[in-house]
């Protein structure tokens, strides 16, 4: 059987760690690409280092590092992590001008070399960056997706498991909206071992946990000082890669292009989707209560404002 080809653009913290998770899960052959210049050999060094771990872990993925998009040609999945991360005191939105330009350059190349790929965008500010990737590649929206919800939900699920002293495997949750401070964890869609979370955690404590999940990215930035989170973000991205490559039809939250869906009107926002070989195969519309609807709308408005600002910058 032909192995899947996975390209990861940006061989920094998130990109290289994503390559690691994808290789460990034997999802396919991996091309790790970064820019030429002083650090041109860095992706080759990381790819070789990872390859040298393959006999230990027993994976047969071929991993190469490069600065040349020709090596990425015909990829099935392209993950874009290229761009700058934030540092303490910055918001994700502060990355807009720099990363919108980088996203444009990267997507021109992806469009030319892997026209059939499903593209997963990770760079921040996430929802605006996926919109930029859609604009520049011109790919069908189902094949241009953003990673945020799997990570944000994983943070929320981790905090709940810690709170209750139970396995993370038994915590199931959903979160919608943009990947910013306005994201909307849905208590009504959270359960532990099938039990609605509100029967297990008092509302005031649940509100604190939700608030921590919402600010989870900033919490890690504050601890690391030099950049932002990468283990969980890379793991979340690898889970999306797996859903696509193995056609798993996972029902998970991703930043998907919503037009009529949820009345969004042509923007990317986090919603539950069915993810398979075709990318976003379905956007699942659920009933939200009035306060959830209001919170979701606030989040959509914040995304729209950012996309409008981006239009003045690129
Ligand atoms: N969506 C999400 O949930 C998350 C998003 N992020 C975002 O992911 C991005 C990457 O974060 P890190 O890996 O921590 O940063 P990093 O600085 O470790 O790596 C970024 C890499 O992108 C490369 N790069 C820059 N311009 C490029 C170009 N034109 N072509 C190819 N590569 C290029 C850099 O050389 C660098 O190696 C940031 O924007 C960060 O905010 C990070 C964590 C979670
Ligand atoms: O917080 C950041 O800047 C990186 C990110 O998106 C996250 O970890 O959720």
From TrEMBL:
It comes from the Bacteria. NAD(+) binds at residues 10-15, 34, 99, 122-124. It is an enzyme of class 1 (oxidoreductase). Its EC number is 1.1.1.37. Residues 151-310 form the Lactate/malate dehydrogenase C-terminal domain. Substrate binds at residues 86, 92, 124, 155. It catalyses: (S)-malate + NAD(+) = oxaloacetate + NADH + H(+). The keyword NAD applies. Pfam families: Ldh_1_C (PF02866), Ldh_1_N (PF00056). Residues 5-146 form the Lactate/malate dehydrogenase N-terminal domain. Keywords: NAD, Oxidoreductase, Tricarboxylic acid cycle. The active site is at 179 (proton acceptor). One of its GO terms (molecular function) is L-lactate dehydrogenase (NAD+) activity. One of its GO terms (biological process) is lactate metabolic process. Belongs to the LDH/MDH superfamily. MDH type 3 family. PANTHER family: L-2-HYDROXYCARBOXYLATE DEHYDROGENASE (NAD(P)(+)), L-LACTATE DEHYDROGENASE. Catalyzes the reversible oxidation of malate to oxaloacetate. This is Malate dehydrogenase. The lineage of its organism: Bacteria, Pseudomonadati, Planctomycetota, Planctomycetia, Pirellulales.
């Amino acid at each position: 059987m032909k192995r899947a080809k996975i390209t990861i653009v940006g061989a920094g913290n998130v990109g290289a760690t994503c390559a690691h998770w994808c290789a460990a899960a034997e999802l396919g052959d991996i091309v790790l690409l970064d820019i030429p210049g002083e650090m041109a050999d860095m992706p080759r060094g990381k790819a070789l280092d990872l390859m040298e771990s393959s006999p230990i872990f027993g994976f047969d993925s071929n991993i190469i590092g490069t600065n040349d998009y020709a090596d990425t040609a015909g990829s099935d999945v392209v993950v874009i992590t290229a761009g700058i991360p934030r540092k303490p005191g910055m918001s994700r939105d502060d990355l807009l001008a720099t990363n919108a330009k980088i996203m444009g350059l990267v997507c021109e190349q992806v469009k030319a070399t892997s026209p059939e790929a499903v593209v997963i965008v990770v760079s921040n500010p996430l929802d605006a960056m996926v919109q930029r990737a859609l604009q520049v590649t011109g790919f069908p929206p189902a094949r241009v997706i953003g990673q945020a919800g799997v990570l944000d939900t994983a943070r929320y699920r981790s905090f709940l498991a810690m709170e209750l002293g139970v396995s993370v495997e038994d915590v199931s949750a959903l979160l919608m909206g943009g990947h910013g401070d306005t994201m909307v964890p849905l208590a009504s869609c959270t359960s532990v071992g099938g039990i609605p979370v509100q029967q297990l955690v008092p509302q005031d404590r649940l509100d604190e946990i939700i608030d921590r999940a919402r600010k989870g990215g900033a919490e890690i930035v504050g601890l690391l000082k030099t950049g932002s989170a990468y283990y969980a973000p890379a793991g979340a991205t690898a889970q999306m890669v797996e859903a696509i490559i193995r056609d798993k039809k996972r029902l998970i939250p991703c930043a998907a292009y919503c037009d009529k869906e949820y009345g969004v009107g042509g923007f990317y926002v986090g919603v539950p989707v069915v993810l398979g070989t075709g990318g976003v195969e379905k956007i699942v519309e659920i009933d939200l209560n009035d306060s959830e609807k209001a919170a979701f709308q606030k989040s959509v408005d914040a995304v729209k404002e950012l996309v409008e600002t981006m239009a003045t910058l690129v």
